[in-house]
Amino acid sequence: MLISVLFIITSCNAPAKKTIEKTGKDEECYASKDQEYAKPNEKGGFGDIITKDKVIPLSEFTKSYDRKTLQTTKISGKVLEVCEQKGCWMSLENGSEGPMMVHFKDYAFFVPRDIEGKNVVIEGEIKSDTTSVKELRHYAADGGKSKEEIEKITEVKVELTFMAHGVIIEK
To answer: Residue 149: helix, strand or coil by DSSP?
Structure first.
C-alpha cells in the first residue's frame, strides 16, 4: 500500500513527458499532438484582447502598403495553413502574392490547429522579410508536407510576415 501511494505521489509530481519525434526540427516547436497549446483569452480570442473595429481585409491592405516600413495594423484574412504541431504559426491567403506567414508575439500564445479555411482578425506588425531555406523547410515539415516536397525548397523567400499580438477567429 505504501509503495502504491508513493508511486502515485511521484507520478503526479513528475513533469509531463513530451513525445518528440526525431525529425531535426527545433524542439521548442515540436511537441506531441495530444497536448493542447491554444488557450483562449477571456473574450474567446487568442493572445491580447482585440476588437473587430477598423479591420482591413489583407487583400486591400497589401495594395497600398509601403513594404519598406514596419507598420502596426489590424487585418482580416482566410487561414490557409496552421502549424500542425502546436499552432505556433499560421499562413493567410494573400491572392497572387502568395500566403502571408503569421507568427505570435514573444511565442506567448498559439491558435487551435483546426482553423484552416476559417477567417481571422489579427492585430500586430506587418513587414516585408526574407525567410531562409532552413526556416521554410521547418514550416513545411510543421505543416505536414512530405519529405519530397520539403527537399524541393531550395531558395529563400521574400514575403510579407506578420507578428500578431492578438487573434480573433470569426465564427
So the answer is: helix
Low-confidence ranges of the chain (pLDDT < 50): 1-34
Q: Domain-by-domain residue ranges, the chain?
A: 36-169
Residue 93, pLDDT score: 95
The CA distance from 108 to 166, in Å, is 10
**Separation of alpha carbons 87 and 29, rounded Å:** 9
List, in sequence order, every beta strand (DSSP E) within the chain.
46-47, 56-57, 71-82, 89-92, 100-104, 119-131, 157-169
CA distance 111 to 106: 14
| Domain boundaries 36-169, corresponding CATH code | 2.40.50.140
Confidence (pTM): 0.73
Q: What is the pLDDT of residues 143-164, one digit of tens each?
A: 888 999 999 999 998 888 999 9
Q: 57-77: b or e for each residue (b if 16 or more CB lie within 10 Å)?
A: ebbebbeebeeeeeeebbbbb
Is residue 126 a contact partner of residue 68, using CB atoms and an 8 Å limit? no
pLDDT tens, 24-37? 434 444 444 445 77
